[in-house]
Amino acid sequence: MTTAPLDLNDPATDPFDVAARAAAVIAERTGADHHDVALVLGSGWGQTGDLIGATLATVDNADVPGFHRAAVAGHSGSMRSVAIGDTGRRALVYGTRTHFYEGRGVRSVVHAVRTASAAGCTTIVLTNGCGGLNPSWGPGTPVLIRDHINLTAASPLEGATFVDLTDLYTPRLREIAKEVDPGLDEGVYVQFRGPHYETPAEVQMAKVIGGDLVGMSTTLEAIAARQCGMEVLGISLVTNLAAGISETPLSHAEVLEAGQAAAERCGRLLADVVGRI
């Protein structure tokens, strides 16, 4: 049975109540009353769930309150309950996300994060495909997010809700990732609104203000996760050099191709990290 998406933008709707209802449906469909770690898989990260452990249940997004089908090519329109090795713990793996540029509102963008928290997750791993500003980071390079710059002019926090974002991307988790892959670099992720790619001038602006990576996701989700008290690990996959850094025009097909080429390395990296968290 398909559940009609709720209007999260209705001021009378409590987004945390919808998240609790979504978590209840996930528990019913997966047979697990508790998940431990959540993963949001961006472009290039789709193989990760297979490498973490056995998929114990798959749930169509459209069957869960507040969720929608995938709107971007290369993303899966379902979520999975995955065994984390033989630890007895479970990962809630989202095969897609709602992007800010879809126009569904910030509440929809962060709904998966709030649902994961309601489902019991205390840690979330946010991944994405992005443009790189460092020429030494060729397509297929994973980079840890150590901080971000949010250029969407939006926030998932509503009203007089003040949340400290110091060390938003949990240092402990970044150290675990570096233990798994000592060659990992770190960078500052800059989120633009999208869906158009950034102009060369905008990329240079991002560089001037301290950015190393540019994309169209992640920052709003990370803020929502901090509000929920979750630890956050952010990892970007450089799928292309950003406009003006690259000598060739940008395309979504290029993003998908680079992601597929790096799928094994990225999937194994995250599987090992999740197993140690």
Automatic annotation (TrEMBL):
Residues 37-274 form the Nucleoside phosphorylase domain. Homotrimer. Gene3D superfamilies: Nucleoside phosphorylase domain (3.40.50.1580). One of its GO terms (molecular function) is purine-nucleoside phosphorylase activity. One of its GO terms (cellular component) is cytoplasm. The keyword Metal-binding does not apply. Signal peptide: none annotated. Its EC number is 2.4.2.1. It catalyses: a purine 2'-deoxy-D-ribonucleoside + phosphate = a purine nucleobase + 2-deoxy-alpha-D-ribose 1-phosphate. One of its GO terms (biological process) is nucleoside metabolic process. Pathway: Purine metabolism; purine nucleoside salvage. A purine D-ribonucleoside binds at E198, N240. It is an enzyme of class 2 (transferase). Belongs to the PNP/MTAP phosphorylase family. InterPro entries: Nucleoside_phosphorylase_d, Nucleoside_phosphorylase_sf, PUNP, Purine_phosphorylase. It comes from Intrasporangium oryzae NRRL B-24470. The purine nucleoside phosphorylases catalyze the phosphorolytic breakdown of the N-glycosidic bond in the beta-(deoxy)ribonucleoside molecules, with the formation of the corresponding free purine bases and pentose-1-phosphate. Cleaves guanosine, inosine, 2'-deoxyguanosine and 2'-deoxyinosine. Pfam families: PNP_UDP_1. This is Purine nucleoside phosphorylase. Phosphate binds at S43, H75, R97, T98, H99, G129, S217.
